[in-house]
Input
Amino acid sequence: MLKSAGHPLSFPERVKNGPMGPIPLLFLVVTFDRGGAERVLTRCSIGLPREKYAVRVAALQRRSGAIAADLARAGVLTHDLDMRGKWDLRVCIRLARLLRRERIRVLFAFMFHATLLSRVVGLLCRVPIRITSEHSMDAEGPGRRLLNRWTAPLATHVVAVSEGVAAYASRQFRIPPDRLTTIVNGVDCAHFRPAEKSQHLRPSVIGCTARLHADYDHATLLQAFARLGGRWPEVQLLLVGRGKEESSLRVLAEALGVAGRVLFVGEQADVAPWLAQTTVYVQPSRTAGIPISILEAMATGLPVVATAVGGTSEVVADGETGLLVPPGDPVVLAEALDTLLGNPAMSVAFGCAGRARVEAHFSETRMLERVEALLDTLVVQHLGLTFDPSKGWVKC
Output
């Protein structure tokens, strides 16, 4: 059964000899759980001008429903497609019914399973603008890469979150340049701000705000943290997030003898207060696009230690805003953390430079402007409409 929150809005009919109202746009995501892609989707859903786009969001699976609650508070319509497993093909019927009932004209999908469904079902339902996003490199097995390549031609446009991801998508999925746009992720610089100096008069805290998933490789982080014990016995490790690796990570922390200094605080609706308690931010991922968590830490004025994977090197300027290390190497990771813990002046300089870099290149305002500009361009190309601030959408 299709489950919705709020009241459905149908595509506004053209007033006789007049303009059209907002264009129905559906963001499609795999779950309503909190994560990097979901945070971007939430900000776009709330931030796009409502006089242009009637935004609603659908998830294949509800799970925690965390971002659904955030969206509902902001007045964004949400739909739960109630997918019961990866082979539950009934979700295709539910999505098709939703697209037709709401007369969706723009379908924008995030993450692999949502991407595949949006391309196929969106085409069958004749949704004129079908946008999918690419978030990482080499994170998919050969089967997924093949499916992505086969269905890529069904998308009207593809958005990559970094230049590296764009190059990868162009090469692997044969997406031509005129159907591929890079829009880097952005964060709210007004919400994520450097903490007051007085807040740093406490024992040092190494923080990480990534889901407890194998891709983020918290196991290597715990091993690196254990190596710091002799030199920094008072330092704590703060892990913000939840995931299927939590139990095994707790066991590993016990085995390494650091459980008493590792804080598992679970998923948090707002990570800003936790970042404000952090001295050094660390991201040990094995793969990444443009990691939102690193951008939030940099906006908070924190020095960063991160693995040089995916688009991370496009965010973290090595030796300027943080230190980049190879993935899966606890020795080098521990050395980088030790360097920043032992050099407060360097940490402060990196944090200030990181904040400036986010403000200049990775702000939420900049991201929303680019998303809106792309949508407006595609509406002109595929719907033959242009937006008049005094009238609304009118024929070109």
About this structure: The chain is about 40% helix and 20% strand. Confidence is low (pLDDT under 50) at residues 1-17.
